[in-house]
Design brief:
The protein has 748 residues and is an alpha/beta fold. The protein has helices at 18-29, 49-65, 79-97, 106-115, 124-131, 145-152, 163-197, 202-234, 239-278, 283-303, 315-340, 353-369, 373-376, 378-390, 394-399, 454-459, 491-498, 517-525, 554-559, 584-589, 609-622, 685-693, 709-732, 738-747, and strands at residues 39-45, 74-78, 418-420, 426-428, 439-447, 461-466, 470-473, 477-480, 532-535, 570-575, 592-599, 625-627, 650-658, 667-676.
């Protein structure tokens, strides 16, 4: 097996024109049509954690059994769909490059690849028995990956890793960052206490400064505002200068009020501490109780729906979130104040207060710098567990037991070489003339809360795509993937970034409780983040080392969520579902003629809000219209109610691409096949039984990532059944629809 990438250097380090890259993509994929003409086929696997991965697995199996997977040029994945997509790319590469064992021909390699996703004739038990039989040719692996997944769907809690070990790992990650930041504040408070012994009361001065700043703003500016408007309207000033001055004044006012609030909080820490001590209260108990009360509130918020609420925004909910986060943070400030006073309470240490405080501050600065937050955070733990389940070594499959995924741990996504031809042959592609097929598009989101571009700032980010060829976004530009990050973006890391659902300042479709700045601050403080810090592709760099730490960018961009824009040195990547949870957006950008979507996002009310979100975004960004206007295959067939299953699990719409020639107005049509995880009348008996025992099926909360075999099987079989409805309609022509006829022709 060869994992080496093409040695030729990329023609340039950064690209601004996506059309140039799109043209090159089509050449390498063997799509003959000009890049501005809709062409090619793409399979999109939506987000939704292990739920969407299991559902998409059933869809994939049906496509394999119907010999349709080889028709697709692109594989666009988001979040949980990326778990399965990474497996497809991984096993296609392995089958194409494993020269030490049979099979040899391209058709045999493809058969070995598809065998990993379920044998047509053998189950898990008799497959293992057949592998031991001397009469049968030895298979590539004794058990296939499907059998492995069935036993390891609970990927966050693998065998031989106890819950206590898992909890300890998470606690270690969270404690490191909070201890560094708490030690920093403790050192600063210690220095301020030392200044008190020198009759310099910074706490009191901060209160005075806060009152002065607040008073100037509220009284002075308010009273001066009237005469200023009179002067501006009486004297002949430059109107443009006045307009700019008003905007500059608003910005300065916000900064002054923020500074006044910070000074007020600093003053209040000592004021509250003195009040409690004067009245005989234990300051330490009050500090810990305040934080504990905040944590209880946080748990309550999580139980009410976490980062994704389908009930819409609520003023009361926003207030609860703000109060909860404020209690935790204020309790930690009081704790730091208590710690800073410990030397002063000891006769032996009292004279060394300044030295101890400076030493604490310096140690915090050193430990905050000597850490790579991409490796030390919860995100790394998440990435490793995903990799061990979805990208295992062949040895793990031979024993059907959990093992370390040592090969995938260092395998770069740019090294993917498995190319499935339309004929059904599988071979290793020639890097300079061909590329992986279907080309894997890993959909992520780049956080841009402070972008000067309104379209990025209001959405909270932009679509950031990682592929074996090129990676980037409209906001940052694109680079050759071999140069992305520290020149070694692995398939496992790209998969975990695309699934980084829990992250400060990011939420599905840009809306959610984690977009709250206080909540984001608290999550950053405890390193509760799955996202990934990446050197900006838009910057020319001679040093390709990627070592983000707790100070840069962890403080300004992490804690305070300032500078999250496309011009910064570091950018933060999160779950692709924070921008588009369907995987459709990047396929529409590439003007793909046929798009088949496996959709299993969290949608208990069948609102199809993920679909609605991407329909709106492609209309705004590309002037592309997606319409479901054929009642024979419309979206209404997917609607269901309690006790009343849906008529069907798929719908077909039309994608209206505007003609690229300005002199030829009009549209060129593409087609969108939408398969949704809904209960249907054709569900098998075991799936229907599972649904009756689990009322939330088939829309279990995404927070439930602990799937056992029955849950994996229920979603997989549902996906297989719904995809079977589609393949049956294509094969037998049972639905009178021109859209079905068009899709049939495109898949032929």
């Amino acid at each position: 097996m060869s994992d080496k990438t093409d040695a030729a250097a990329p023609p340039r380090s950064s690209y601004k024109d996506f059309e140039l890259l799109h043209k090159r993509e089509r050449e390498l994929l063997g799509i003959d049509e000009p890049h501005k003409i809709p062409a090619g086929a793409g399979l999109a696997l939506s987000g939704g954690g292990i739920r969407s991965a299991s559902f998409a697995l059933g869809v994939l199996q049906r496509l394999l059994n119907s010999n349709l997977l080889c028709r697709f040029d692109y594989l666009s994945t988001v979040s949980g769909g990326g778990y399965l997509g990474a497996s497809v790319s991984w096993w296609a590469h392995q089958a194409a490059n494993n020269l030490d064992a049979p099979p040899r021909t391209g058709r045999d390699r493809y058969a070995a690849f598809r065998e990993q996703f379920g044998s047509k004739t053998l189950g898990a038990r008799n497959a293992g028995e057949a592998a031991d039989s001397p009469q049968r040719e030895q298979p590539w692996t004794k058990w296939n990956w499907l059998a492995y997944l069935r036993q390891h769907g609970n990927y966050l809690h693998p065998p031989h890793v106890g819950l206590l070990s898992l909890a300890t790992s998470i606690l270690r990650v969270c404690l490191y960052s909070v201890l560094v930041y708490l030690a920093t504040v403790t050192g600063i408070f210690g220095i301020l206490r030392w200044l008190l012994t020198r009759d310099f009361d910074v706490f009191r001065y901060s209160g005075t400064a806060s009152a002065v700043l607040g008073g100037l703003f509220v009284v002075g500016v308010t009273l001066a505002y009237g005469p200023m408007t009179w002067v501006a309207s009486t004297w002949k000033f430059n109107p443009t200068w006045l307009y700019k001055s008003r905007n500059r004044f608003r910005q300065i006012s916000g900064l002054l009020m923020g500074l006044a609030l910070a000074l007020l909080i600093l003053w209040s820490v000592r004021a509250v501490a003195d009040y409690l001590e004067d009245h005989g209260h234990d300051l330490w108990k009050w500090a810990t109780s305040t934080s504990a009360l905040g944590f209880v509130g946080a748990l309550y918020q999580f139980r009410r729906g976490g980062a994704r609420s389908k009930d819409g925004p609520s003023v009361l909910n926003e207030i609860r979130v703000a109060v909860t986060a404020a209690l935790v943070l204020y309790g930690l400030l009081l704790s730091a104040y208590v710690f800073s006073g410990l030397p002063a309470a000891s006769p032996q240490l009292r004279d060394y207060l300044l030295q101890l405080s400076l030493g604490t501050l310096c140690l915090a600065l050193v430990f905050g710098f000597l850490v790579n937050v991409n490796y030390a955070g919860v995100g790394r733990l998440y990435r490793d567990r995903l990799m061990e389940t979805f990208l295992p070594d062949a040895a793990a499959l031979n024993n059907n037991t959990w093992a370390l995924a040592t090969q995938a741990d260092v395998f770069p996504i740019a090294a993917l070489r498995g190319r499935i031809a339309r004929s059904g042959d599988l071979a290793s592609c020639v890097a300079t003339k061909e590329c992986q097929r279907p080309l894997h598009l890993v959909n992520c989101n780049v956080l841009l809360l402070d972008s000067p571009q309104d379209i990025f700032r209001t959405r909270g980010g932009d679509s950031f795509c990682i592929s074996p060829l090129y990676s980037g976004s409209n906001a940052t530009g694109w680079v050759d993937t071999r140069t992305l990050g520290d020149n070694s973006m692995t398939l496992a890391t790209a998969m975990s970034i695309s699934g980084a659902a829990v992250n400060p300042n990011a939420a599905p479709n840009g809306q959610g409780v984690t977009r709250n700045r206080l909540v984001g601050f608290l999550m950053s403080l405890f390193s509760v983040r799955l996202g990934y810090w990446l050197p900006n592709p838009n910057h020319e760099r001679s040093n390709r080392h990627n070592r983000p730490n707790l100070w840069l960018p962890g403080t300004r961009q992490g804690l305070f969520a300032q500078g999250l824009r496309e011009s910064e040195t570091f950018i933060e990547l999160t779950d692709g579902g924070h921008f588009d949870n369907t995987g459709i957006y990047e396929l529409v950008r590439r003007r793909t003629k046929l798009i088949v979507v496996s959709a299993a996002g969290y949608d208990p009310h069948c609102a199809m809000d993920d679909l609605a979100n991407v329909i709106q975004k492609v209309r705004v960004d590309f002037s592309v219209f997606i319409e479901f206007d054929d009642p024979a295959v419309g979206l209404h067939r997917l609607r269901y109610e309690p006790g009343k299953p849906a008529d069907s699990g798929f719908a077909i719409g039309r994608i209206r691409y505007p003609n690229s020639d300005p002199g030829s107005p009009g549209f060129s049509d593409g087609y969108l096949v939408y398969l949704q995880s809904v209960p249907t009348r054709s569900m098998p008996a075991d799936v229907e039984s599972y649904r009756r025992e689990h009322p939330e099926f088939p829309s279990d909360p995404t927070s439930d990532q602990f799937f056992h075999e029955p849950a994996v099987e229920a979603y997989r079989e549902l996906g297989y059944t719904i995809a079977g409805e589609l393949s049956g309609a294509i094969a037998r022509g049972t639905i009178a629809s021109s859209y079905v006829d068009k899709v049939t022709g495109l898949l032929a």
